[in-house]
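Closing statement on the nicotinamide-adenine-dinucleotide sub-project.
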Amino acid sequence: MDGLFVGSSTQKQPKAGITLSTRQSSIVNRQSLIKESTGLMTNTQKLRHAVVGVGAGIFSLHKDALDQTPEAELVGVCDVNTQLGQLRADELGVPFYQQAQVMLADLKPDVTSIITPHPYHAQIAVDALTAGSHVIVEKPIAIHVGEADRMIAAAEANDRLLAVNFQHRYRPEVIAVRDLLQSGGLGKILRVTVVEPWVRTAAYFRNAGWRGTWRGEGGGVLMNQGPHGLDLICFLLGMPVRITAWTRTLQHAIETEDTITAMFEWGDGAIGTVYMSTVEAGQRRMEIAGTGGTLLLGERDITLERFQPDLLEHIATNPNPFGRPEQVTAALDIKTLDGPSGHAAVYRNLYAAALHGATLRCDGRQGRQSLELANAMIYSSHTNQTVDLPLDRVGYEALLTRLQK
Ligand SMILES: NC(=O)c1ccc[n+]([C@@H]2O[C@H](COP(=O)([O-])OP(=O)(O)OC[C@H]3O[C@@H](n4cnc5c(N)ncnc54)[C@H](O)[C@@H]3O)[C@@H](O)[C@H]2O)c1
């Protein structure tokens, strides 16, 4: 498929240990043995780490990730919610700041985690990168793709790393599917079907006023729950070239979409459909149909059926007008993760990249892809047209500005 397996980083990688003093650099050089494939490190070189948005619900997973990263030394936290932020800072035993810029200027952290609501990701990331910090930003990378462009430019201009927290890229079964596709194990890809129920209650939207609003998150299910599934589409199958979508608000009392359905087309003619909703319950799944077989990736399981022979040969040679190819259930080799999972895996990868030049599994350019798909679907639905990618940045920003009024 077009753009298939471009998962390796295209962001310019800063030189390993570039922020370190001569003495620190020599320590890194002496101890720079790492397993590139997993990002596992064997030294205890510390990088000074700060967190913006420490009051976030998701902070507990970032705290676990910091605890599992021996090279991370938490040096300060920030939140516009002074009470909650100060409480967390006291628990952590680090200084508290109300403004990210003040913290960046004061502490000059080597690494900054940004876990605020998405509309703040872009500006805080640009500030942190400009201040000389590597950045790990929660998904989605930003709320519109023009902002992501500016974040990527800031990372490149300042020779810093920008990692996006798409932890599903580390799931062993996802890696197994990627390996299968990369080896041509499903033949030529014909169709992709993604169904993602992400049921959320009214209480979920009541608990945080920014959710489900154009100003607060720039979209609904596409901007909050959907980014993981959209990222997996890009990680496994590459960027589509064309999208037609309907976004609808079927049940929730929110401004933005709670349900979407879309058609995707890839450059080599493969097609796909995507359905996502916060008002449907059930199992999330992705089905990939190729000429060599079909694969169903569920939340925890994989079903793989292989065709014998390949469908293209079967269609060309089988004399039976209604004949089906032989279908054999096959097992997929799912390797145990060599290192931590979830957020901690993303941290481990960023630290390996910062200290030892490892490749980021999801850099700014990779992290921008799912946002571009989400923006394109909203644009398609609101303008009632099929959208070609890359998305018209100016057109989308104008639409979003109108929706935010
Ligand atoms: N990777 C994942 O699986 C995952 C899961 C949940 C949330 N997230 C992402 O994490 C982010 C936070 O989500 P949440 O639900 O935990 O948010 P939340 O509403 O619980 O918390 C956000 C925090 O950011 C603070 N904040 C807001 N603006 C700020 C600013 N300008 N500077 C400093 N602090 C600021 C708020 O006071 C609050 O404490 C979102 O982008 C969300 O999409 C990712």
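Residues 1-12, 15-41 have pLDDT under 50 and may be disordered. With this model delivered, the sub-project is considered complete and its resources will be redirected to Aim 3.
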